[in-house]
Amino acid sequence: MASPTPTTSGRTTRPAPGRRRSATRAAAALLLCCAAVPACASSPDHGSHPRKSAAPHHSGRAQAAAEKAQRAEKAARARLLPGMPAPLDPQDLYAADRPNKLSRTVKGFPSRVYVPNTLSDTVSVIDPKTYKVVRTIEVGHQPQHVVPSWDLKTLWVNNDLGNSLTPINPRTGRVGRPVDVHDPYNLYFTPDGKHAVVMASKDRALVFRDAHTMRVVKSVPVTCFGVNHADFSPDGRYFIVSCEFSGELLKVDTARMKVVGQQRLPLAGAMPQDVKISPNGKTWYIADMVANGVWVLNGDTFRRPRLLPTGKGAHGLYVSRDSRTLYISNRGEGTVSLLSFKSGKLTDRWRLPGGTSPDMGGVSSDGKALWLSGRYNGEVYAIDTRTGRLRARIPVGGGPHGLAVYPQPGRYSLGHTGIFR
User: What is the pTM of this model?
Assistant: First the structure.
């Protein structure tokens, strides 16, 4: 019961019966709250019971989402080409290519730029720190590309008209005995590391060979002309090939070693070159020297691609170390276009001074320089990727083509001048 309340006149009064009952109920409720929830006296919100029940609810949703993600990852792994390493990040195929993230295999390799000179039958070796040619290696007739092997231990020089591959040990610089391989215009490796795929342009064939011995496993005839460049799907199950001289694209089943799709590009005289897949694995870009841009393709559906103009003589395609930008060399006008993978649009264009012909190459290990051969100028360009400015132009042999910057970050090589994942 409430105590009497003194008045200003000295008399005492008692609360009305209704007020006494309300006060009693309030006090009882407060005592009940504190008995049931000891923290209620210090809590700013006495109605906190729903929050206690919400935590398990949110935890349950998070657990369900995690389990769903695990099931999706397990399913994605099941779809992978057997034997291939799973992507570090399903949303970024180039997650292993971060600046200076060298594998144990290549740590300690001297940093060099290997330049095949098609008209000189040599490979110029450049020290990227001094921008000087430190060695010239004689190789077979018309070397087209210098290709890192799947296991990163060997550099293969593709002597196209010499019908041979010259191995170079990138750790020691030792040049090995040439291996007889017919018409090796370009060279790729399946993601499982089992096979090399020779782009036999003149022979009109894709030749699957043992990745180590180069023994022929299967030769796949093609009906297009000038097979030259390729890249692989995220699961490694198929790859897209460009046919330079007939303006066509091929889709090839990796495991079955079989062409499963073929289409002609929708432009008279099209001349497709380099091929590169986006970090998220959903979009393919194919440079085209005649179309003066890149074709944008959905590799899964393999339907008609659309053209994105970039510059005259679009040729080589290279991914930045942060997986945000595609560098596109426009050989016919001496420029490099920059494409944002996120927006799918061009963001900049760098013009190289003094009459240049930027062709093939690669990005430095730290990502700060883009190295490209000057196909018609007998020189190599080092371009600052932060400013687009030309750092150096280095004289080399005649007709420099598919140079390799080595070593580079990545767990394994898919070939060409260095496609690392």
Answer: 0.83
